[in-house]
Write a structure and sequence with these properties.
The complex is a heterodimer of chains A (509) and B (327).
Chain A lengths: L4 E10 L2 E11 L4 E5 L6 H8 L7 E6 L2 E3 L4 H6 L2 E4 L11 H5 L6 E2 L2 E2 L1 H14 L16 H13 L5 E5 L7 H16 L3 E5 L3 H7 L2 E6 L2 E7 L5 H8 L25 E8 L3 E8 L4 E5 L6 H8 L7 E6 L2 E2 L5 H4 L6 E4 L3 H5 L6 H6 L3 H4 E2 L2 E2 L1 H14 L16 H13 L5 E5 L7 H16 L3 E5 L3 H7 L2 E6 L2 E7 L5 H8 L4 H5 L2
Parallel strand pairs in A: 3-10, 3-11, 6-9, 9-10, 15-22, 15-23, 18-21, 21-22
Antiparallel strand pairs in A: 1-2, 1-4, 4-5, 7-8, 11-12, 13-14, 13-16, 16-17, 19-20, 23-24
Chain B lengths: L3 H8 L1 H20 L6 H26 L7 H15 L4 H28 L4 H19 L9 H8 L8 H18 L2 H11 L1 H6 L4 H27 L6 H17 L11 H20 L7 H16 L15
Helix pairs in contact in B: 2-13, 3-8, 3-9, 3-11, 3-12, 3-13, 4-5, 4-6, 4-11, 4-12, 5-6, 5-11, 7-11, 9-11, 12-13, 13-14
Classes of the chains: A alpha/beta (509), B mainly alpha (327).
């Protein structure tokens, strides 16, 4: 079939990072085309280019035989491309009808025609199979699943020729998922071209007509759905270059089980985003959290660090049950938890402040007396840390924002080590930093474990989980779906369980 | 559908609450006033209240886009000074003067918007700076208080109509109907709320962010100038007073908040701000009729303001991710 939209040799870089490299993609009317690939494979960048959110550095976009450039999302919308993003593009304070008609509201005498707008909204909601949503309800008052349905109705109200869904079902309840399936099949039969990103292989098996696999920003293969087994598909998705050297892991200690766990979570749940998580970590261990991005790993860390309210289940530290209410409590000596957050620029550091200020911030309680910071002790502690982690800074007084990314990350880690924590949570600590620093961080984590800390490491880089961790808990949809350790800890097993496939299926190929 | 009214109530609850608060306070005021419900009392109250109400409407527009305009008070003063020069002479000359005053206000607002949109500066600092510039121009125009205004026009607008209806009240309703209502129902007004609610989502939905902000700030300038023009009709003169400018700016922000508009943007109405302004003004007068010392007035106003804004943050008690508290 003649493609309606073609992307030819598209390249895109963000800073020094290559997101897409001469990628190709084409989709046809009346087909559902699934995009597959692991974290960072370039799928999101590809659809952002299709929908005009980012512009490619190189390459051509051909829509209905004509070459096009989309400078704004609006250009893509008027060309007939509607995209439903993973991060919702709804305005929470506005009503459902206002949101659905935001781009091009119906007008009468130059003003918005509310009656007509309401009719359009009702029609769009009905088309999306969500007639039960009141068009005047503010979007912020709806559940996540209902909001996603509004998002779909909003896209449909523009009568697109091409509909792009990025993880559109990840927030949906089972009933809404069924509605979306029925809807997508009907739209396909009406001749719409649908591009579908999902990490759920069963959805892809259910819906897709064609599949394209991406890896490392490049297009690997396109095939008709059903012609490749799940195992073969996984095989196409893996194969990232392993470019790091990891410190040797200690042999599995037989006495380890006897030690009291530093951290023991039983049935941890929160808000329908975390379900029944059981996890123990012993002193001396590095436990990895795997799985695709956004499966609850971040929330799990926040729950352990006392940020979330209303966490269900039981948490024991060194055998004692505890209730955590705040990071201030979690970092106290008797608890001893540290969290290295995912975004060092916003959550980890105060960029304009000096290296010294940043290093001592979390440990000021220890470094002060009667509310006055003991500057001698502060300086000595900071200098120790700089030496221990070999942080490269011209001086401790320079703003931390002037350091390189790798050194900034070291400052974030060092800041927490000042408290001598016994449980260290790290949220993707090596994202966007250079290989040399990565290796230093790996060695540091191992040393911390050897010194008796329990380390929990979430990483989007599978190689890192394999190289660094003693055991890995794979998250899917807010649950731990699989534990991998020893010889089982392979990239294939990680990818397969991240997609919630059983390894026996994958191994069958 | 029959539960439409619930959603309507929910959307406008801030404005209704402010209106109810105004009715209660104003009733208290009238009942305790020696003269009671008479045309002069109502007219005087309207003349004072409407000025702030219109400046508060001006403030509402930038606030809805999650911005702020610290120059509204200074545009108000500048319009007053310009009007005391131009709105004089024959009726025709005075009419041209009125148009000129409004054009000056709109231009001031447009400059604010252009600097914020194209210069990408933060609204708070941009309007602080431009407000000072506008005040400087006012001072150049009126180094000492004085000037004049078309007396016929002034008397007509500050007096009372048959039946004791204050003319200023009619002007206020006219401004609401001619400026706010069409704006709220225009694409640009909708877009302003969208930007205030979530600028990223608005961008992703293809909303023209620059134009929307430019229109919001321009209209704010225009409304502030209408306020300044009316001030001239009340005082029959022009005065470049930084105190008046500052007080009106700060009170306009307070009125916006009492009227149920979130300073974070995205939700609220100028009608709420109008009632917020009337509440704020009446509280002051209330203290006079109760014979309280004027010294207590700021203290009392402060408590009312605190109580009003506290209502808005009740929802934070429901937050389950503490990081959301800082958004």
């Amino acid at each position: 079939m003649e493609p309606i939209l073609e992307l030819i040799d598209i390249s895109k870089r963000y800073g020094g990072v290559r997101a897409l490299e001469r990628a190709r993609f084409a989709c046809a009317p009346g087909r559902i085309h699934a995009l597959l690939g692991e974290n960072g494979a370039g799928k999101s960048t590809l659809i952002k280019i299709m929908s005009g959110v980012v512009q490619p550095d190189e390459g051509r976009i051909v829509l209905e035989g004509r070459e096009r450039r989309f400078a704004h999302p609006q250009d893509a919308v008027s060309a007939g491309i509607a995209c439903i993003f993973q991060e919702l593009s709804l305005m929470p304070d506005l009503s459902v009808a206002d949101n659905i008609c935001i781009t091009n509201p119906p007008r009468k005498y130059g003003l918005i025609d509310r009656k007509e707008q309401r009719r359009i909204a009702e029609a769009a909601l009905a088309r999306a199979g969500a007639e039960d949503i009141h068009p005047l309800a503010p979007v912020g008052s709806l559940s996540l699943s209902r909001r996603q349905m509004v998002e779909i109705a909003k896209a449909l109200s523009r009568n697109p020729k091409i509909l792009i869904l990025d993880e559109a079902t990840s927030a949906l309840t089972a009933a809404d998922v069924q509605r979306v399936y029925t809807l997508l099949k009907r739209l396909r039969d009406e001749g719409m071209a649908i591009v579908y990103i999902s990490h759920r292989m069963n959805e892809i098996a259910e819906l897709a007509d064609d599949c394209s696999v991406f890896r490392n920003g490049q297009h690997v293969a396109t095939f008709a759905a059903g012609t490749q087994s799940d195992a073969q598909t996984v095989e196409m998705m893996i194969g990232r270059d392993i470019e790091h050297a990891f410190p040797p892991k200690p042999p599995v200690q037989s006495g380890l089980d006897a030690k009291a766990p530093a951290l023991e979570a039983r049935g941890l749940s929160w808000q329908g985003r975390l379900h029944d998580i059981d996890l123990t970590a012993r002193p001396g261990e590095i436990v990895g959290l795997g799985g695709l991005d956004g499966q609850g790993q971040r929330e799990f860390f926040l729950a352990l660090f006392g940020v979330l309210r209303g966490v269900g289940g039981e948490l024991k530290l060194e055998g004692r049950p505890v209730q955590l209410h705040s990071p201030k409590q979690a970092k106290r000596d008797d608890i001893g938890i540290a969290l290295v957050p995912e975004d060092r620029k916003t959550d980890g550091l105060m960029l304009p402040m000096s290296v010294l200020d940043n290093l001592s911030f979390a440990a000021l309680d220890r470094l002060s007396r009667a509310g006055i910071v003991a500057s001698g002790a502060e300086l000595r502690a900071a200098q120790d840390m700089v030496k221990r982690l070999s942080i490269k800074a011209p001086d401790l007084s320079v703003p931390v924002g002037t350091l390189s990314g790798g050194n900034q990350q070291k400052v974030v880690i060092a800041k927490w080590l000042m408290n001598a924590p016994r449980i260290i949570l790290l949220n993707d600590p090596t994202r966007g930093i250079d290989v040399g620093t990565k290796q230093e961080i790996y060695a540091l984590l191992r040393r911390l474990a050897e010194d008796g800390a329990a380390v929990l490491l979430y990483s989007t880089d599978y190689a890192e989980l394999i190289g660094c961790c003693d055991r890995v808990a794979v998250f899917f949809d807010g649950r731990i779906v699989r534990w991998l350790a020893g010889d089982e800890l392979t990239e294939r097993a990680l990818v397969a369980s991240a997609l919630n496939l059983t390894t026996t299926e994958a191994a069958a190929a | 559908m029959n539960d439409d009214w619930k959603f309507h109530l929910r959307e406008h609850k801030g404005a209704y609450a402010a209106a109810a608060m105004f009715v209660v306070i104003f009733a208290l005021y009238i009942l305790n006033h020696q003269a009671g419900w008479t045309a002069p009392v109502i007219t005087t109250a309207a003349n004072k209240g409407v000025l702030l109400a219109i400046v508060a409407m001006a403030q509402t527009l930038p606030v809805l886009t999650a911005g702020i305009d610290l120059s509204v008070g200074m545009v108000f003063v500048l319009a007053n000074c310009v009007a005391s020069h131009l709105v004089v002479g024959t009726p025709l000359q005075a009419a041209f003067g009125v148009v000129a005053v409004l054009a000056v206000g709109a231009l001031c607002g447009w400059i604010n918007g252009a600097i914020i949109v194209y210069g990408r500066l933060q609204p708070i600092i941009t309007t602080l700076a431009t407000g000072t510039v506008y005040y400087g121009i006012s001072l150049g125009l009126r180094p000492v208080p004085g000037g004049d205004v078309h007396a016929g026009l002034a008397d007509a607008l500050t007096g009372s109509l048959p039946g004791g209806i204050p003319a200023m009240g009619v002007v206020l309703v006219g401004v609401v109907l001619l400026v706010w209502v069409p704006y709220r129902r225009s694409v640009s007004g909708r877009a302003a709320l969208a930007i205030g609610s979530s600028e990223a989502a608005a961008y992703m939905s293809g909303v023209n962010i620059g134009r929307t902000k430019l229109i919001a700030y321009t209209l704010a300038g225009l409304l502030a100038a209408i306020g300044g023009l009316l001030l001239t009709f009340v005082t029959y003169s022009g005065e470049a007073s930084s105190t008046i400018g500052g007080v009106y700016t700060l009170n306009s922000i307070a009125a916006v908040v009492i009227g149920g508009t979130s300073l974070a943007g995205g939700a609220g109405t100028a009608i709420g701000s109008v009632f917020g302004a009337l509440v704020l003004r009446t509280i002051g007068d209330l203290l006079f009729v109760f014979d309280l010392e004027p010294l207590w007035q700021p203290l009392f106003q402060g408590f009312i303001l605190l109580a009003a804004v506290s209502l808005g943050s009740l929802q934070l008690l429901k937050v389950s991710n503490r990081l959301d508290l800082f958004k």
